[in-house]
Predict the 3D structure of the following.
Amino acid sequence: MNDTPAPIPVAKKSGPTVAIAFGGGGARGLAHIHVIEALDELGIRPVVIAGSSIGSIMGAGMAAGMRGTEIREHVLSTIGRRREVMNRIWSLRPTNLASAVAGGFRVGQFNLERLLKAFLPEGIPADFADLSIPLKVVVTDYYGQSERVCESGDLYQALAASSALPAMFMPVRIDGRVMIDGGIYNPVPFDHLVGLADIVIGVDVVGGPEGDGEAMPTRIDSLFGASQLMMQSIIAMKVKAHPPDILLRPEVSRFRVMDFLKAQDVLAATAGIKDQVKIALDAAFAAKTGN
């Protein structure tokens, strides 16, 4: 018996167009890096990208022209290192008492727009217009009880709004409206790509509660676990109504939403998704071209 693994099929550089939606999931979304690397290796550049929460940030990196390997290196050299994280957060400290109390003191709430500017690579521009691939950033209108898709204007503002996890980060105002995490309303926004490409890919990194089925979850685990269940129900309904051509689900459930310091572990645990991307795309290309 030959134990040598079969080679991974490689999709053609030309042919059907591809669009991709990167889903929300906090630190679990670092698995998106493998998907971006797989597309790079196949020579495929999406014609349009959509993203919610961490997915919008990863999508912005790709839309700006960054390769997956560059995004990986940046992640591991910043949020993957405790000392670097603390140094960058320390650089955002108020310089005086007036700055510290401006707008009121909020325990446990951080200005995500400032954090993003401190942590994201310089290659990500300030405006949507300077991206090399069109990007749709999904945010949730808190009082409007609806989703909104940002496609122009201030990119960092949109990314901050899309990633503004309630209780962790301050909401963001866009055009006078209060916006919060886009993943709450649309965890994997593949529905916004229908008709824009021949092949639509959705990447779900929401995960779900993990355990032996008997142990009582902690208060925090039950809070985040409940949000996972809610988002998975939304995804299920959207898949039933109009499924993407490819839906990828990296094994991310063992990680928590704020496990960014475990970046290396997340990447190691989800490495297998890269081959799944290539196999799924090879089949999708064959189905579209009849080869």
Remarks:
- The first strand starts at residue 18 and ends at 22.
- DSSP finds ten helices and eight strands in the chain.
